[in-house]
């Protein structure tokens, strides 16, 4: 109903149908918000993103919110000390945000504009944080009833890669003008899946980390953080070397350090075996802090890295560190090294580009799965995978959820098992049943369960 005593009358010369709701951003702070009819009100998804903002560390700076709706998250950021620019395609939402910000006494901290993504050239060079509660309702088909266009824009995702994909494309077009420390927080609906997918960011070379999650009846909502791997530290590229594992020892101690070689003459694999590489292969090494061993066992490090690389490439992982195709032909591997002379753990990744043969055995390459992918883009994707697990961002508290790592590793290994791969342990039929947090496999054999970390005692049949 129209409320002529509501502050909403200031939205236009004509009266605006609206309501007032109270939203708490903490135990002691709440705001009365004027919500016009066509403006998305704060709900459980708003609460999830609001709680995620409370988890941020580091210094406040300049922030952008896309689609502020009522403006409550913009108000929360401004209340924390951020300078905020808010953009909404709905003119009533833009006006509501201005109004609610003013009532909160935060107008000096906030600038509000009316418009959609692409209507403005965001000042990304000076922006430290960008947030967006992505519209996530499934886009209606041509024969389904549509909302008013202004409500559709604020509530429904786009076909194809969704609003998330639109944002990725925008950022990639302006990548040279982006603050290298920019952190992006987005809310997705992951069950049932909307067109906007968090995985699209990893495929585009962005680091990705889940920050928060909630299940509301049959829907699962997740908040993810994204940033460019390395922040202001660029990867090192050399034409040729004996081994990138050795070259990584020479890298600076500070920052997200990694090195890629176009050609490697003396690469090594497990137990000092020779890793033969050809021109065009992806060969690189990452340095991560040796303190990671206090959180995660070496066996789990190589398994989770391998599982995540296999996921973005579309191949399989053979425990503990081989990347393979469905026939069991190897296309790459992950090697973990450390020594007393270095404060870092070195993660080496080598992946063939093309099909081939090594020591009389057929080998595969990433072109079997992604024929148009070049080495540089593959490196960017793997950089994002490893960064997503191990890199720290100044605005994000660094935590590793071992249960999640264990689950993701098990999912990766299980994909091979689901294809009917057979295992023989000490020449007896066996069945893999789990992986523990040390990265060891648990087998069931002759009615007994045993843990194994010795790869040579296991035979695989594809």
Could you give a short description of this structure?
This protein has helices at residues 44-54, 72-80, 91-103, 149-155, 162-173, 199-203, 244-247, 298-313, 375-390, 402-417, and strands at 18-24, 30-36, 62-66, 83-88, 110-114, 129-133, 183-191, 207-216, 219-227, 236-241, 258-264, 267-268, 274-275, 282-289, 316-318, 322-324, 330-337, 344-351, 356-358, 361-363, 422-425, 428-435, 441-445, 448-452, 458-461. By secondary structure, the protein is α+β, with helices and mostly antiparallel strands. The protein has a seven-stranded mixed β-sheet with strand order 5-4-3-6-7-9-8. A seven-stranded mixed β-sheet has the order 10-11-14-18-17-16-15.
Write the layout of secondary structure elements.
Elements: E1 18-24, E2 30-36, H1 44-54, E3 62-66, H2 72-80, E4 83-88, H3 91-103, E5 110-114, E6 129-133, H4 149-155, H5 162-173, E7 183-191, H6 199-203, E8 207-216, E9 219-227, E10 236-241, H7 244-247, E11 258-264, E12 267-268, E13 274-275, E14 282-289, H8 298-313, E15 316-318, E16 322-324, E17 330-337, E18 344-351, E19 356-358, E20 361-363, H9 375-390, H10 402-417, E21 422-425, E22 428-435, E23 441-445, E24 448-452, E25 458-461
Parallel strand pairs: 3-4, 3-6, 4-5, 6-7, 10-11
Antiparallel strand pairs: 1-2, 7-9, 8-9, 11-14, 12-13, 14-18, 15-16, 16-17, 17-18, 19-20, 21-22, 21-25, 22-23, 23-24
